[in-house]
Request: fold
Amino acid sequence: MHAIMVMLYALVAIVALLLIGLILIQPSDSGGMGAACGGSGESAFGGKAGSHLPRATVWMTAVFLVLALLLAVLIGRGVGNETSSLQQAMSQEAPETVAPAETPAPETVPAVPEK
Reply:
């Protein structure tokens, strides 16, 4: 199950980056990031791209939400958190050992010679 968790984390990261890209390339009324980076008022992908970008953004957002919820459910159930036999052996309580007796501290502090 550990491989599935790694794959889901990778998918969430890829979808998040694609979603960021889709949001940044969308045209806005005031120019948005496109105008701030020196872009012109026209769409970079032609006149019909305006109708496809919002739809793709909605789909990518839905995919991101489903993946994030799936990861939350799997993490909540403890999937991928199986302990190995080595970790189980290390977590068992070690037999108590008797600590050596501490030496008592000296009762008087030696005088420091003055200069």
Notes: Residues 15 and 64 are 6 Å apart (CA to CA). The chain has a mean pLDDT of 77. Residues 49-76 form the longest helix (28 residues). The radius of gyration is 31 Å.
